[in-house]
Specification:
It is an enzyme of class 3 (hydrolase). This is Enolase-phosphatase E1. Its EC number is 3.1.3.77. It catalyses: 5-methylsulfanyl-2,3-dioxopentyl phosphate + H2O = 1,2-dihydroxy-5-(methylsulfanyl)pent-1-en-3-one + phosphate. With about 230 residues, the chain is α/β, with parallel strands linked by helices. It has 2 domains: about 140 residues, HAD superfamily/HAD-like (Rossmann fold, 3-Layer(aba) Sandwich), CATH 3.40.50; about 80 residues, Transcription Termination Factor Rho, Rna-binding Domain, Chain A, Domain 1, CATH 1.10.720.60. It contains 10 helices and 6 strands. A 6-stranded parallel β-sheet has the order 3-2-1-4-5-6, sandwiched between helices. The longest helix has 23 residues. The protein is globular, with a radius of gyration of 18 Å. The structure holds the ligand CSCCC(=O)C(=O)COP(=O)(O)O and magnesium ion. The site of the ligand CSCCC(=O)C(=O)COP(=O)(O)O has 16 residues, from α1, α5 and α7.
C-alpha cells in the first residue's frame, strides 16, 4: 500500500459514532431553542435558516420539529449539517465539546507528516464542522488542523457513496492521480465508491461501528487501528 494522500472519513473512523450521536447531536438540540430565540431574525443566522425548505424556515416550531426529525433519522443533508456546525461552535470554544479521537489517530498524523503524506478529510459533516472537530480534540497537541491539507463535504465534493465525488476530489490535485489516494472509512459503500474512482480503499472497524458482512471482509482490507496500516 503506497499512497501520497490519506483521505479520511470522520465518524466511525477517527472518532466513535457515539461522540456524534450521544454528544454532538444532543448538544445541538439543547442549544437550538435559545439560538433561535436570540438569532432567528439576525443576518448571520439567515444563511442557515434560508437554506432550509421554506415550510420549515417559516416558524421556529416547524424549524425545531424538522431538525429533530432529521437528526433522529441521522439524515445527512447539507442544510442540517451546516446548521449543526454553527450550533457546535460555542460548545467547542467553551471547552464543553472536545473530539475524542481514537488513540492511534494523532500519532499516525505525525508519522504521515514526517513521511510527506498529505492528510485530507471527507465527511458528511460540513467543512466548518470538520475544522472544529480537528481544532478541538482530546489529543496533545489538541489542534490537528495544521496537519490537514484540505477538507471535503457533500457540498464541495458530492455524495460519499458516488464514485464521481472521489473523482472530483482527486481532480483538484492533478499532481496526485487517483491511485495515489488511500480512503479510510467505516462505510463499505463509501470505500467501494472510492475504489471505483481508482483510489485505494480500506475499511476501518471501530468499537460501536455497524457489523461488517462476510462479503465486505472478503472484498476489502479491514483494519481496527491506523497502527495496522503499513507505512505509506
Ligand atoms: C464533522 S461533523 C460531525 C460528524 C457528522 O455530523 C457526520 O455526519 C459524520 O459523517 P461521516 O461522513 O464522517 O461518517
Ligand atoms: Mg463514517
Amino acid at each position: 500500500m503506497v499512497a501520497k494522500v490519506a483521505l479520511l472519513d470522520i465518524e466511525g473512523t477517527v472518532c466513535p459514532i457515539s461522540f456524534v450521536k450521544d454528544v454532538l447531536f444532543p448538544y445541538a438540540l439543547e442549544v437550538l431553542p435559545d439560538t433561535l430565540e436570540s438569532e432567528w431574525d439576525s443576518a448571520e443566522f439567515a444563511q442557515y435558516r434560508n437554506a432550509f425548505p421554506s415550510e420549515y424556515a417559516a416558524s421556529q416550531t416547524a424549524f425545531v420539529d424538522h431538525v429533530k426529525d432529521l437528526m433522529s433519522r441521522d439524515v445527512k443533508i447539507a442544510y442540517l449539517k451546516s446548521l449543526q456546525g454553527y450550533l457546535w461552535l460555542r460548545g467547542y470554544e467553551t471547552g464543553q465539546l472536545k473530539a475524542p479521537l481514537f488513540p492511534d489517530v494523532a500519532p499516525k498524523f505525525a508519522m504521515w507528516g514526517k513521511e510527506g503524506v498529505q492528510i485530507m478529510i471527507y465527511s458528511s459533516g460540513s467543512v466548518p464542522a470538520q475544522k472544529l472537530l480537528f481544532r478541538y480534540t482530546n489529543g496533545e497537541p489538541a489542534d490537528l488542523t495544521p496537519k490537514i491539507t484540505d477538507y471535503f463535504d457533500t457540498v464541495n465534493a458530492g455524495p460519499k457513496q458516488e464514485a464521481s465525488s472521489y473523482e472530483r476530489i482527486a481532480a483538484k490535485y492533478p499532481e496526485h492521480p487517483a491511485a495515489d489516494w488511500l480512503f479510510l472509512s467505516d462505510n463499505v459503500k463509501e470505500v467501494e465508491a472510492a475504489k471505483k474512482a481508482g483510489m485505494q480503499g480500506c475499511i476501518v472497524e471501530r468499537p460501536g461501528n455497524a457489523e461488517l458482512s462476510d462479503e465486505a471482509r472478503k472484498e476489502h482490507a479491514v483494519i481496527q487501528s491506523f497502527e495496522a496500516l503499513p507505512d505509506l
